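Please predict the structure of the following assembly.
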Amino acid sequence: GAGVSQSPRYKVAKRGQDVALRCDPISGHVSLFWYQQALGQGPEFLTYFQNEAQLDKSGLPSDRFFAERPEGSVSTLKIQRTQQEDSAVYLCASSSRALSYEQYFGPGTRLTVT
Amino acid sequence: ELKVEQNPLFLSMQEGKNYTIYCNYSTTSDRLYWYRQDPGKSLESLFVLLSNGAVKQEGRLMASLDTKARLSTLHITAAVHDLSATYFCAVDPSGTYKYIFGTGTRLKVLA
């Protein structure tokens, strides 16, 4: 169990509901990333944390999206008032800057908004 | 706008054949990554290319990077069915680990 884990793996939300997606990075990894992957597309960057600091949130599509990592380990991506266009797989990745800059991805959360 | 383009987008090939997937990007980047994704699964790291001229090989896959041409290739030798997956390249031009992914190449190896 040393990899990146995410929960839930699947989430169905009715339009307008709020959702929270969790990411547990690899222990000791200081960098954490969230990506959004639409069906048939490559992942797109959402936001980046170094420890507890959110250094880049330029990819968040709207102010309905919010991410936090309060203690520098577990991160939560929250989407408020979900819309159908939010349906996608949300991937979390972590990396250790001490190594090869490689990002290790979790299994993703598939969000379906109905 | 930074673009990362892969071609082909879809590739169907017979077992035992060789083929190359191309990844072109529109800005300078000294780092390039290749990932594999199986349907419904997450991304599995294949190669990390950190400098111009880097070449790495693992089994039937070999990746190379030409930063001057802004081009990376993923060469498949004697394909087998187990290689069927979608392959993504990603660049990190700003050095902040903000990966920009390519469009993906969906590979199907026919037995």
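The longest strand of chain A covers residues 88-95. The two ends of chain A are 33 Å apart (CA to CA).
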